[in-house]
Design a protein that fits this description.
Elements lengths: L36 H21 L3 H10 L18 H12 L8 H22 L3 E2 L2 E2 L1 H5 L1 H20 L3 H28 L12 H27 L3 H28 L2 H4 L5 H4 L5 H9 L3 H9 L7 H13 L2 H21 L5 H15 L4
Antiparallel strand pairs: 1-2
Helix pairs in contact: 1-3, 1-4, 2-6, 3-4, 3-8, 3-16, 4-6, 4-7, 4-8, 7-8, 8-9, 9-15, 12-15, 13-14, 15-16
Length: 375
């Protein structure tokens, strides 16, 4: 299999510099010139999706149908479906990272395909671990096809993602594989911590602290977005300082994404998120709003222990009471403040190196999405 990169589909600009250089150091975001995030995501999807579909078509028919369902391309029975699944933020990060380094968007296609494959693999396994039967308002892969087939399909996507980058070859392909495998190690570490945290109490000597949470979130969520932002410049042959700056920005935005995700996991509208009300409290997940609230009001932990320690299905009234306690203690506001701070920190990393301005503006526009998520 090989990924044939498409030509750069964005309008050419005479100011686009060679890879790894830019018009001026610290090229700052230009708020007045920003394209819409929706337009950026659509442009990147149009570039990447044909190569992604070609890659998935090479899978065994069983995993191929499950993967196609996970990407939103077909119904459970294989009937083609209009539209797709997620927004494609991670693949856009790869494309924009290459463009920010001064390279054509097509150089990023193998990295964007690999990131989409790996991200979807992680979601399929995550749904199995969490017992989540819904994903993007449809049955999740394990619910639709069974646990064993869904695990196998996830494994197939994992292998295909690594293979996609391996086929790039040369020094750039080797460095890209290094970025991907390092991220995968962090992702597994963070996911394991997140799962173990659920069995720890809300209060006492073995309670989860904010430091532990942040280390987990950086591995579980920050590493993937950091890798996405770094893969583009790696494939573009950008200097290490440019790759590092974009990777660090992506990590910060990953933490912002997770902070807002934690808010939605308690207060999100089920009709929008596709998950039950108070889902994270129901599963005793140690998330940022709760830990931030407990840091400000230490008496909250013992109260949550009493409210949420029941075996079996928790009473909705207990869950609502717990959510109210967290909000009154400032947990929701704490998480949203942290999300805003992480978005700003990511933008600061972009200002620290010379980058091509238009792609930086698009990255900044995408970072706004993390603060305005509803699902």
């Amino acid at each position: 299999m090989s990924i044939h990169t498409a030509p750069h589909t964005a309008p050419p600009t005479s100011s686009t510099p060679p890879a790894g250089s830019a018009p001026s150091p610290g090229s700052a975001p230009h708020p007045g010139a920003r394209p819409t995030a929706a337009a950026t995501l659509a442009r990147c999807r149009d570039l990447v999706e044909p190569a992604l579909r070609r890659a998935v078509r090479e899978l065994h028919p069983g995993p191929r149908r499950i993967a196609s369902h996970a990407f939103g391309w077909c119904e459970t029975d294989g009937t083609p479906r209009a539209g797709g699944g997620g927004k494609g933020v991670r693949q856009a990060f790869v494309v924009l990272g290459a463009e920010a380094a001064g390279a054509p968007a097509g150089a990023a296609v193998p990295g964007a395909v690999a990131i989409e494959l790996i991200h979807t693999f992680s979601l399929m396994h995550d749904d199995i671990m969490d017992g989540d039967g819904r994903r993007r308002h449809r049955d999740s892969a394990w619910k639709a096809f069974g646990t064993g087939p869904a695990l196998l399909a996830g494994d197939a996507l994992f292998a295909l993602g690594v293979r996609t980058l391996a086929e790039v070859g040369g020094a750039r392909g080797g460095e890209a594989i290094g970025q991907l495998t390092s991220m995968l190690g962090e992702l597994v570490h963070g996911q394991a911590d997140d799962e173990l945290f659920e069995s720890r109490p809300w209060s006492g000597d073995t309670a989860v602290g904010l430091g532990e949470y942040r280390a987990m979130a950086e591995r579980k969520t920050g590493a993937l977005l950091g890798c996405a932002a770094a893969l583009g410049p790696v494939l573009a042959g950008a200097p290490p300082r440019v790759t590092d700056a974009l990777g660090r920005a992506g990590r910060q935005w990953g933490l912002a994404f997770q902070a807002v995700d934690d808010v939605l996991g308690i207060w999100g509208e089920p009709g929008i998120t596709g998950k039950p009300a108070y889902s994270d409290l129901r599963r005793a997940k140690k998330t940022l709003p709760v830990l931030g609230a407990m840091a400000q009001d230490p008496s909250l932990g013992p109260r949550l222990d009493r409210l949420l320690a029941a075996d079996g299905a928790l009473d909705p009234a207990c869950l609502r009471r717990a959510a109210d306690l967290v909000e009154k203690a400032g947990g929701r506001a704490y998480a949203l403040r942290e999300a805003r701070a992480r978005v700003a920190a990511g933008r600061d990393h972009l200002r620290a190196v010379p980058l091509a301005g238009p792609a930086v503006d698009e990255l900044v526009a995408l970072s706004d999405l993390f603060l305005n998520r509803q699902r």
